[in-house]
Design brief:
- By secondary structure, the protein is α/β, with parallel strands linked by helices.
- Helices cover 27% and strands 18% of the residues.
- The protein contains ten helices and eleven strands.
- The strands form three sheets. It has a five-stranded parallel beta sheet, with helices on one face. Strands 2-1-4-3 form a four-stranded mixed beta sheet, with helices on one face.
- The longest helix is centred in the C-terminal third of the chain and has 16 residues.
- The protein is globular, with a radius of gyration of 22 Å.
């Protein structure tokens, strides 16, 4: 008899335990069990983080192939039939100002719309990049925001250096070993250059920044729920530098909508605010430096679920290979 499987389905702000499953059951069986608990029909269910070889599993795939850990949380999107019937009614209580948004599957399709791809092509043709340090062959790409990612730009301080996120230089030094570094801020180029000088990034001896991108490299997109927003399409970089692609690029930003055009390559960093209170306890960059080091050997960064970066564990074979390489070097 095969072992039982217990998973947790998170939907509409609640968690539902599904425990009457076995390894010989299929994804279709799982969906039917979810239907019993939530009343969301199987065809309406979108199981966001349930993946098989980086893709959405087929309904006839056996659960044993997914190798789900006990208590694995499945993030689900899906509407009840009654809610769909009422969808024609105008939305109520829509907030006037949206500071951030969650990238839902219906919005992911935005990245493939021709009107936005045309905007990216225009940026590739017309936006001029001033290369500070030449891209290095074989390196992956790390794209970083500034405000609330590397720097608290709102708090008061005697010097701007006091507002720098802890371990910034250690983080960039570590990342530079495997990644070319690019700074992309939704501000002016003058502001970016001044902040990088202030933080000592532009003149640091242990790492180099390849180039800066400012607000002029961004594009505007219209989302079904939130109207027009400005985003940072990585396609602008990929179109100008063929060595970079969705497979070897990762972007850190405290605002998720900024990587709406490239949801698989974005990691939402915890914002660094109130520097005077949090400077001594913020360890985000130290942890992310370790994550970047661990995924540097992955063949496709875009296939990873960066939302759960803190739970990432290198695959056993890769850990062994890294260990073997270290051993070979020590013997040489």
């Amino acid at each position: 008899m095969d072992g039982g499987i217990k998973v947790i389905v998170k939907w509409s702000g609640k968690e539902y335990e599904i425990s009457d499953l076995s390894e010989s059951d299929t994804v279709s069986t799982l969906k039917n069990a979810i239907h019993k608990e939530t009343c969301v029909l199987p065809e309406r269910q979108k199981l966001l983080n349930l993946k098989f070889k980086g893709k959405t599993p087929d309904d006839d795939l056996h659960l044993s192939a997914l190798k789900l850990k006990p208590g694995f949380k499945i993030m689900m999107m899906g509407s009840l039939e009654q809610d769909i019937a009422d969808a024609s009614a105008p939305p109520e209580d829509m907030p006037e100002v949206i500071n951030d948004l969650d990238i839902e599957e219906e919005e992911v399709a935005i990245e493939n719309k021709e009107v936005y791809l045309a905007k990216i092509e225009r940026r590739i043709r017309e936006y001029k990049i001033n290369i500070l340090n030449e891209p290095r062959p074989g390196k992956k790409l790390l794209v970083l925001d500034i405000d609330y990612t590397l720097f608290d730009h709102r708090s008061a301080a005697e010097t701007g250096y006091e507002l720098m996120r802890p371990y910034l230089h250690e983080f960039l030094t570590s990342a530079y070993k495997d990644y070319d570094i690019v700074i992309w801020s939704a501000t002016s180029m003058k502001w970016i250059e001044e902040k990088m000088k202030l933080l000592g990034v532009s003149s640091h001896s242990d790492y180099k920044v390849a180039f800066y991108l400012d607000s002029l490299a961004m594009i505007s997109v219209h989302t079904p729920k939130y109207g027009v927003v400005q985003v940072k399409p990585l396609g602008v970089i990929w179109g100008k530098f063929t060595q970079y692609s969705s497979k070897n690029t990762i972007m850190f930003d405290d605002i998720r909508r900024n990587f709406l055009m490239n949801p698989g390559n974005g990691l939402k960093i915890r914002p660094f605010k109130q520097a005077h209170l949090n400077r001594d306890k913020d360890r985000e960059l130290l942890r992310l430096a370790k994550y970047l080091q661990e995924i540097a050997h992955e063949e496709d960064l875009g296939s990873l679920d960066h939302k759960y970066w803190e739970k990432y564990r290198p695959k056993k074979k890769k850990r062994e290979r890294i260990g073997d390489e270290s051993g070979d070097k020590s013997q040489s």
